[in-house]
Design brief:
The complex is a heterotrimer of chains A (186), B (444) and C (318).
Chain A (H helix, E strand, L loop, with lengths): L5 E5 L1 H19 L5 E6 L2 H17 L4 E5 L14 E2 L14 E9 L3 H11 L6 E9 L11 E5 L7 E5 L8 E5 L8
Helix pairs in contact in A: 1-2
Chain B lengths: L2 E10 L4 E10 L2 E6 L15 E4 L4 E4 L1 E6 L12 H10 L2 E6 L10 H14 L3 E4 L15 H6 L5 E2 L8 H13 L4 E3 L4 H4 L4 E2 L2 H6 L3 E2 L1 H18 L3 E3 L5 H13 L3 E5 L1 H5 L21 H12 L5 E2 L8 H4 L16 H10 L5 H16 L14 E11 L18 E11 L2 E5 L3 E2 L5 H4 L1
Parallel strand pairs in B: 1-4, 1-5, 6-7, 7-8, 9-10, 10-13, 11-12, 13-14, 14-15
Antiparallel strand pairs in B: 1-2, 2-3, 5-16, 16-17, 17-18, 18-19
Helix pairs in contact in B: 4-7, 7-8, 8-10
Chain C lengths: L1 H4 L16 H15 L16 E6 L4 H13 L3 E6 L11 H10 L4 E6 L4 H8 L3 E7 L5 H15 L6 E5 L6 H12 L3 E5 L15 E3 L2 H5 L4 E4 L4 H4 L7 H8 L3 H4 L7 E3 L12 H4 L6 H19 L3 E2 L5
Parallel strand pairs in C: 1-2, 1-3, 3-4, 5-6, 5-8, 6-7, 8-9
The chains are: A alpha/beta (186), B alpha/beta (444), C alpha/beta (318).
């Protein structure tokens, strides 16, 4: 499964540092963690949101609410003839009205997932503010969307992909840049 | 001038012939059969004689299909006498007996006469009408059976509308016996059939379709056998479909009851599994049964319990079949597949070729007491020339019949009529199509 | 990777439960569980099927099922059109092919059809490029009903594996019974049927169920009891002598219920005849999950609409 033609752009220690730095920036920008809530986008975004929440709790001593969004139902590429992904639960166990929400995703690429997540979030209420935190920004935006907090920016070609592995998935923490495979692979 | 059919394998069980020979036809009748093995010397044809080379082909007495729905008068959109008899000729059939469930029903002499007149004018093969048992096939009052016979009816039957009233059936048998007509019974207890649309069993359970149980047929077979025994009437059971019916008929025959029975090609070949495709062309009455029933039908045919193979040719229009399964009409358009389908039993060894000729030609003629079913010198030269090995694909769009309703669409069959002769005239040739209509002189 | 991808949902149509694999049933139930949350939101709507046209073609009146499908379609933002037809194509002198062509001219994406004639959804599915959902065809199948029943039981019990389900009533004329027999059996449950022999179809044992003619025996140690609605108008006099006698021998009462497990679940596809197949105290009692069934109906139908309009892959993250 481990792709041969891949390059590690972030190791476990790097990921830890990046998340800590992002947490500090959040605290700095908001003058604390008061009134903040983290919402992770399935799948890796959920783990990242939980880790960021833990960092913030350690820094500020108060507990943070977290939620989960599955953007599948809001995607703009559900078309006939293509298979839909399986839908998983969206769980936002708090009222989003007038809250400051930090959306968390692993990779920011075209911006379409973020767009879908924003639409989904709006269906739950009217937050006071929404910000975006991503572990990796790899460029190639197709929508006017930018991240407020970025763990690492990586220059990529369009055909390349970024893979985020985390302990919560049963893997070692790392971020890989994978070049397109040769013709023999499916 | 005479006609010589030269060098074909002649199969005529009525004369014990199954060998290569020549058939001489003169003035529309069989003149002479020349068999070299019996020391007959082959006369050379004269310059004016027509010669048909039949080398490698099989020549049999013309097929008699004793159970056909020609639909005319009344349902000309499904079939007419013209199209139905063309389908017959193309299928190697030289005589069809047509059922009485037309509109109006064939319950009086005038309808019989109309059918015969139409057949003389537009028909291609011989047509023998079957009269109704009851007026309007309503199962209440007897039809004018004496007049029907006088007008040409060869049997009586309420086929399609089984006679539920046992007393009426008793009277019909007594009355028909008076005129020497056989009664053909479509055996089905309408109450037990209970608006069913297919065989009752696991398949109907899974498909959620109302079932017609075997007992709906068997109860009536048992009743009619007892009535025939009681009244002394000749009884013919139409389209036997179940193992129980075969057993009952076999037992009755052993007792000496004057009963004969027929089976259709589709009941010999298909089972109710075919319904799973939701093809309404598998909807037929009696319904396609289980593999066990099919096995019993083969056995019954082989041991002589079942005397005849008949199509129950039931052509329908698109509007009757391209509808919900439960609402679709019952029936299969069968004339053009009779030969190819029933020869499957010969190819697989269930029937000898002679027995097959008995079932499709000799016996039906005998049961209806009509000419045909033999090549004895002097009889009208009705015969079918068959290529036993020809493989062909069933294409309903190429049917002569208006009814395209066949579940055998796309099947590859082995054996095909190459030529069909009525009274010595070629009415069908495989590559030339329908060649002639009959005229008054050959119709009866 | 290919092997994994093939494990998803690939069907164009949902015509019955009988031909679904355990995995396919699980995909639908899991998807339905995810969809349940949407119905609890203030804005009970997601844009997933925006621009899709769903036609509800009902040849048999059914307020419940039709409404449930309609809500499901609307929560997914599809455009739903209802066509109620009181007569079949035959009466109108139309063939089914004509009906199919007319439907296709509407450029529909999904056809939800209920018809008194079994097999009609199959016939239309064969000729229509659109997805076809069977909302009940004759006595044959009612797949979404069985799916919502399975979802309801799975929610309460965690699994269907090894459970004992008893279905009571007119098995012969019940599409709900057939679909549930297939579904619960595929999911590893044991299924029994109970009723007078007039209502137990010939050969039903071949579907892998056990037949009982005594209610108490049939529900002994049952985890789930499913009571079928008795169609009084059609059956009385022919299949059983009277409502009174039916209620006495086959009606589910508190007394009879003592035979079942103490935590037994009571289901009914509705609408109920209180006092005939089910005593009022049972219908409204603590064992009844009949309202859960209604809620789950919408979730299951959303899941089916979602899966049929695109299917699903397993193991592929976005």
């Amino acid at each position: 499964m481990e792709p041969r033609n891949s390059k590690k752009v972030l190791n476990a220690q790097g990921m830890r540092r990046a998340l800590r730095r992002m947490a500090s920036e959040i605290v700095e920008r908001h003058g604390g963690a008061e009134g903040l809530a983290m919402v992770g986008i399935r799948t890796a975004g959920v783990f990242l949101a939980q880790r960021l929440a833990r960092e913030l709790e350690q820094m500020e001593g108060s507990s943070l609410e977290t939620g989960i969004i599955d953007v599948t139902l809001y995607r703009d590429d559900l078309k006939r003839g293509r298979r839909h992904p399986l839908v998983q639960k969206t769980e936002i166990p708090f009222n989003v009205d007038d809250r400051k929400i930090i959306l968390v995703d692993d990779v920011l690429f075209t911006g379409r997932t973020t767009r879908a997540a924003l639409d989904a979030l709006m269906d739950f209420g009217r937050p006071a503010l929404v910000q975006l935190a991503v572990l990796v920004d790899r460029g190639h935006r197709e929508l006017p969307i930018r991240a407020d907090y970025v763990g690492i920016s990586v220059h990529t070609e369009r055909e390349e992909s970024i893979i985020v592995h985390m302990e919560e998935m049963g893997l070692e923490d790392e971020v890989l840049l994978v070049r397109p495979q040769s013709a023999e692979s499916p | 001038m005479a006609l010589l059919i030269r060098g074909g394998c002649i199969v005529d069980p009525t004369q014990g012939i199954h060998e290569v020979g020549d058939i001489w036809i003169d003035k529309g009748r069989i003149h002479r059969i020349v068999l070299p093995s019996r020391g007959d010397s082959a006369a050379a044809p004269g310059p004016k004689d027509e010669v048909i080379e039949a080398k490698g082909l099989t020549v049999i007495p013309g097929i008699v299909d004793m159970h056909v729905h020609l639909r005319e008068p009344g349902y000309e959109y499904k079939e007419t006498i013209a199209t139905g008899t063309r389908a017959a000729a193309a299928g190697g059939v030289t005589t069809v007996a047509c059922m009485a469930n037309t509109k109006p029903a064939n319950d009086q002499g005038a309808v019989c006469q109309f059918i015969l007149a139409k057949a003389q004018k537009e028909g291609v093969v011989r047509v023998r009408p079957i009269g109704a048992i009851s007026r309007g096939l309503e199962g209440a009052e007897l039809a004018e059976i004496g007049e029907l016979k006088e007008s040409g009816a060869v049997a009586i039957s309420d086929d399609g509308r089984p006679v539920a009233d046992s007393l009426l059936m008793r009277r019909a048998m007594e009355y028909a016996r008076t005129f020497g007509l056989p009664v053909i019974s479509h055996c089905e207890d309408p109450h037990l059939a209970a608006n069913g649309v297919m065989n009752e069993g696991l398949v109907s359970l899974e498909l959620g379709l109302r079932g017609i149980p075997r007992i709906a047929e068997e109860v009536m077979v048992a009743r009619d056998l007892l009535l025939a025994e009681w009244t002394g009437c000749r009884l013919h059971i139409a389209h036997v479909s179940s193992a129980g019916s075969v057993r009952l008929i076999r037992e009755a025959k052993e007792r000496g009851v004057a009963v004969t029975a027929e089976v259709t090609p589709h009941h010999l070949i298909l089972t109710d599994e075919a319904v799973r495709r939701w093809d309404t062309n598998t909807k037929v009455n009696p319904p396609l049964r289980s593999p066990k029933d099919v096995e019993a039908l083969h056995q019954g045919l082989a041991d002589g319990t079942l005397d005849a193979i008949a199509t129950d040719h039931a052509p329908h229009g698109r509007v009757d079949k391209e509808v919900e399964y439960e609402l679709a009409a019952f029936g299969i358009s069968g004339l053009e597949t009779l030969l190819g389908l029933s020869l499957m039993l010969v190819h697989q060894g269930t029937l000898s070729l002679e027995d097959w000729v008995r079932k499709v030609s000799c016996n039906p003629a005998k049961i209806l007491n009509i000419p045909g079913g033999t090549l004895k010198p002097g009889v009208p030269a009705d015969l079918t020339i068959i290529n036993m090995e020809r493989s062909w694909r069933v294409d309903p769009e190429a049917f002569f019949s208006k009814g395209r309703n066949t579940p055998f669409h796309g099947w590859t069959l082995r054996g095909k009529a190459v030529m069909t002769f009525i009274g010595g005239r070629k009415v069908f040739h495989e590559s030339e199509g329908i060649l002639a209509t009959t005229d008054a002189s050959v119709c009866l | 990777m290919d092997r994994v991808a093939q494990k998803g949902w690939w069907r164009k149509d949902l015509l019955g439960i009988q031909d679904l694999s355990r995995e396919e049933i699980e995909i639908i139930l899991d998807t339905a569980e995810s969809f349940k949350e949407i119905s609890t939101r203030e804005i009970k709507k997601v844009p997933t099927l925006r621009g899709k046209t769903i036609v509800h073609l009902f040849y048999e009146p059914s307020t419940r099922t039709r409404t449930s499908f309609e809500i499901a379609a609307k929560r997914l933002s599809a455009d739903a059109v209802n066509i109620s037809v009181s007569t079949s194509s035959v009466v109108k002198g139309e063939t089914l092919l004509d009906t199919a062509r007319n439907l296709q001219a509407m450029e529909l994406d999904v056809l939800v059809i209920r018809h008194a004639a079994a097999g009609t959804p199959h016939m239309l599915a064969e000729v229509l490029p659109a997805s076809v959902i069977n909302a009940g065809d004759g006595f044959r199948e009612h797949p979404t009903q069985a799916l919502l029943d399975m979802l309801t039981v799975r929610e309460r019990r965690g699994t269907l594996e090894g459970l004992r389900l008893t279905i009571v009533g007119d098995i012969a004329h019940s599409r709900v019974a057939r679909s549930n027999i297939y579904g619960f059996r595929t999911m590893g449950a044991k299924v029994r049927v109970v009723g007078p022999a007039t209502m137990i179809p010939v050969g039903v044992e071949e579907l892998g169920v056990e037949v009982f003619y005594d209610l108490k025996e049939g529900i002994r140690e049952a985890d789930v009891i499913m009571m079928l609605r008795i169609q009084k108008e059609r059956l009385q006099g022919a299949f059983f002598p009277s409502e009174r006698e039916y209620a006495r021998f086959f009606g589910l009462t508190l007394e009879a219920l003592k035979e079942a497990r103490p935590d037994v679940l009571i289901m009914h596809p509705g609408p109920m005849n209180r006092g005939v197949e089910i005593a009022p105290e049972v219908a409204d009692g603590p064992y009844s999950v009949i309202l859960d069934q209604v809620t789950n109906g919408v979730a299951v139908r959303m899941a089916v609409l979602y899966l049929l309009t695109g299917g699903a892959r397993i193991g592929v993250a976005h």
